[in-house]
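Sharing a chain and its predicted structure for anyone who wants a worked example. Both blocks are below, sequence first, tokens second.
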Amino acid sequence: MNKPLKITKFGNSAGVILPKELLAKLRAEVGDSIFLTEMPDGFRITAHDPEFERQMAVAERIMREDRDILRALAQ
């Protein structure tokens, strides 16, 4: 999708209206949070928190590496 979005004034703020097709692709609905991440070549909009995703990747790595220790602690 390569569609320009017009910046609109909302009170003392400004914003863009996201088309329903984009919301569907993001799997986001009215009231959800979306995340804007600065990238070397621009910005990325996602419906998930990139920091949380990074933390989960670290947790999964630790769980794989220390599986035996975690199993023993669970008993």
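Comments welcome. The two ends are 51 Å apart (CA to CA).
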